[in-house]
Amino acid sequence: AQRVTQPEKLLSVFKGAPVELKCNYSYSGSPELFWYVQYSRQRLQLLLRHISRESIKGFTADLNKGETSFHLKKPFAQEEDSAMYYCALGGSGGYQKVTFGTGTKLQVIP
Amino acid sequence: DSGVTQTPKHLITATGQRVTLRCSPRSGDLSVYWYQQSLDQGLQFLIQYYNGEERAKGNILERFSAQQFPDLHSELNLSSLELGDSALYFCASSQSSYNEQFFGPGTRLTVL
Question: What does chain B look like in DSSP terms, one character per residue?
Fold first, then answer.
């Protein structure tokens, strides 16, 4: 079964502190993983995906197949990072359903 | 603006009724996805269409159906509505299954 787990519903950090949003997945094939973000009163939008291996807005995420994790990290949190973050899993090699985690609300305290 | 549009924005109806939600994808996008977001369930994938054909199915109830038309817009039909169907329904589009999904603003359905 395809499953994504985001264990934290809410993560509060102080401005300037490191951030790590956890995501674990379960998938038997070759996974494609994404992080989506939803800022207040805005649409859900893609933040980054593992195949592009880029850093967006200071965020990075590394796929760890051994630990089946795709944690989102940022060394220094900014107030504008406050948002809802969703980890998503799709399968590669064809048309596969996309499974989203339940989301983690990141609150950056000034 | 991502370009994905959804109508209506809000819908209030009664149990047992049937409603149709509409989605227009971004220009050039062939894939359309439907999601349901409720407070206790998070974002649930319902169904995906690609160029008019159903491509992937998620946790979509038998009371729900969808289709994608030749002009690529999509409709999600919800029938025999129950209180538990109250949720935000999102549509997203992408060029293919491998690309980034662009989300619409959602339709908020309230079943009374």
Answer: ----EEE-SEEEE-TT--EEEEEEPPTT--EEEEEEEETTTEEEEEEEEETTEEEEE-S--TTEEEEE-TTS-EEEEE-S--GGG-EEEEEEEESSTTSPPEE---EEEEE-
